[in-house]
Design goal:
heterodimer, A: 308 residues, alpha/beta, Alpha-Beta Plaits, four-stranded antiparallel sheet, 32% helix, 27% strand, B: two-stranded antiparallel ribbon, 75% helix
């Protein structure tokens, strides 16, 4: 029955904390769909509502309004469907007084999915096999993150919800975990819902992203489409000031010492050339530059920021 | 459910400092008591004479060990232990790992059960060690340690023991109920322990408050509210089980005017049952609606 249902669907998911004047609208009407096998990036500045949304997906928070579905089942009424989900929420937390292996035993037994062989295999997979009997109290943040990933994979879940999974890792550790996550999607067909501050990381591994700001989704789409639509053009022309004045009538322009950066799509190049040539501007070169996800994110966030 | 129970057990047993200081201290204390007393008896003739003069039976020792769980100090230790195990899940931020894996109701009910069984196991061990130790001490002192083991004695003792252990189990459930509510309220171990202790101390001070109200408002019947507290009923039931009569409380309103309250074992059993069911139900109700934000 669940085979055709998307791993995640939310319909108008809303969460308010407090009441009256103290009311905080943490999430407002978030609707999104994550398709099977996707690596879906969930981006937003601090306090935008990412973790609150994730907590509602995992039944840790009760939505004020709206619904969250996992594989087509409303998590509020069918919490059992969450056994198909593995998650790390706001960093990995453990019983520090227990060894790593015991922690995984507790979590797997809680889910009634205890399999000692799988625990050992996962510990080996995340590079903690030799320190599995050491108490988590002595683990570094990076080791805890790895253990968190092993904990998330305990029940061989179809869907992984990872909130900042590379926090506290060094660059090589980040690369390793990034590759690991990508492989989980490509080789094992797992669906991954990833929240991260590291936009280069998201750009490298995500197929699709949603940007959330002040509790609402402000952009959503395939990474390639979003970035394609936001190409900028680097224009070398003379005189530069006149060219900037002409183009700024139609497009946002940033002037540099020897060139202009114009927020326009590749399809706009003929019109730009016509505009400039008709007004006797000499055009030397126009190159199309795709924005990085980081640039895109920053521009979206600044566009959506309250002015005043 | 078996896996969930074993998960809880692993957590409880794995917290060695906590269980060591608040739970295992009882069986360890039983052994230490035996060793110290054995040394004294071995060295002192007068101690042996005095010790022999006391009438001690193995049946009373076996069941009497459980009464510690029902007195105020025992309950404070129990509450400290259970408060850490409930509030700890908030402070360690581990609920977020557990709640998606199982139903909230099951998580809470099994926690109550596992904590109570753990305490009962520790006290069962303590009662056996204490009984065996006392046998050793009686032997050193050359004193009797009856009654003789017969079928009837075994049956009666088994029945008394089961009732005492059951009462210990209920006492732990009530302590865990206080602790669970305090833990949920404060979401921290220290806060949970302090609030749970506060609730227990308030319960103990309730009688004083009621007596003052009775004096000042000239409304003596208000004292009867104390009959509904778990602490009084645990002691009353313990008294019925061990010595066969109630543990009355007496309030003097004048030189010749005393209010003596005695309750049957059935009454106390009913009140305790209401408390246990009420506390667990309230915990479940609140926990099901609670947002886990840490």
């Amino acid at each position: 029955m669940n085979g055709t249902n998307p791993p995640i669907t939310t319909e108008g998911l809303t969460k308010h904390f407090g009441r009256g004047r103290k009311k905080i609208q943490a999430v407002q009407g978030v609707s999104l769909t994550v398709e099977p096998g996707q690596v879906y990036g969930f981006l937003g500045p601090n306090g935008a509502g990412k973790t609150t949304t994730i907590r509602m997906l995992l039944r840790l928070l009760h939505p004020t309004a709206g619904r969250a579905f996992i594989y087509g089942q409303d998590v509020a009424h069918h919490p059992g469907v969450l056994r198909r989900v593995g998650a790390i929420v706001e960093g990995a937390s453990f019983y520090n007084f227990l060894p790593a292996r015991r922690n995984l035993e507790v979590f797997s037994r809680t889910a009634d999915q205890y399999d000692p062989a799988r625990i050992d295999a996962l510990l080996a997979q995340v590079g903690l096999a030799e320190r599995k009997n050491q108490r988590v109290k002595g683990y570094s943040t990076g080791m805890k993150q790895r253990l968190g990933l092993a904990a998330a994979l305990l029940g061989d879940p179809d869907l992984l919800i990872l909130d900042e999974p590379t926090n506290g890792l060094d660059p090589s550790g980040m690369h390793e975990i990034r590759e690991f996550i990508r492989r989980l999607a490509t080789e094992q067909g797992k669906t991954i819902f990833l929240s991260s501050h590291l936009l280069s990381e998201v750009e490298q591994i995500c197929d699709r992203v949603a940007i959330i700001q002040r509790g609402a989704i402000v952009r959503e789409g395939a990474v390639s489409e979003l970035l394609e639509a936001r190409t900028s053009l680097r224009i070398e022309a003379s005189p530069l000031d006149t060219a900037a004045a002409i183009l700024s009538e139609h497009w946002p322009v940033t002037t540099n010492t020897t060139w202009l950066s114009v927020q326009a799509a590749r399809d706009d190049i003929p019109a730009i050339v016509r505009n400039l040539v008709q007004r006797n501007i000499d055009v030397y070169q126009i190159t199309s530059q795709r924005q990085s996800l980081e640039e895109y994110f920053l521009s979206v966030v600044s566009e959506e920021a309250p002015h005043g | 459910m078996v896996n969930l129970f074993r998960a809880e057990w692993t957590k409880i047993a794995g917290h060695r400092w906590l269980t060591g200081f608040l739970i295992w201290i009882f069986p360890i204390g039983a052994v230490a008591f035996t060793v110290v007393l054995a040394i004294i008896l071995a060295l002192s003739e007068s101690a042996r004479t005095s010790f022999s003069a006391d009438t001690v039976t193995w049946t009373e020792t076996l069941t009497g060990a459980w009464s510690f769980l029902n007195n105020p100090l025992g309950r404070l230790l129990l509450i400290g232990f259970t408060a850490v195990m409930f509030a700890g899940e908030y402070q360690w931020q581990t609920w977020k790992n557990l709640i998606p894996r199982n139903r909230r109701v099951a998580l809470i009910v099994i926690k109550f059960l596992a904590l109570s069984v753990f305490v009962v196991v520790a006290f069962a061990l303590m009662s056996v060690l204490l009984t065996a130790g006392m046998g050793l001490l009686r032997a050193i002192a050359g004193a009797s340690y009856g009654p003789e083991i017969t079928g009837d004695v075994l049956r009666t003792t088994a029945s008394d023991y089961a009732r005492s252990a059951g009462l210990g189990f209920l006492s732990t459930l009530i302590a865990a109920g206080y602790a669970a509510l305090a833990g949920m309220l404060t979401r921290s171990i220290l806060g949970g322990v302090l609030v749970a202790y506060g609730l227990t101390i308030l319960e103990n001070l309730l009688l004083v408050g009621l007596i003052l109200i009775a004096y000042f408002l000239d409304f003596r019947d208000i004292v009867h509210i104390y009959r509904l507290t778990p602490g009084y009923n645990l002691l009353n039931l313990d008294s019925w089980f061990r010595v066969g009569h109630s543990a009355p409380f007496e309030v003097m309103f004048g030189a010749d005017d005393a209010l003596v309250v005695r309750d049957s074992a059935e009454f106390s059993a009913l009140v305790i049952a209401v408390w246990v069911i009420g506390l667990i139900s309230l915990t479940i109700f609140l926990f099901r609606r609670q947002d886990i934000t840490s």
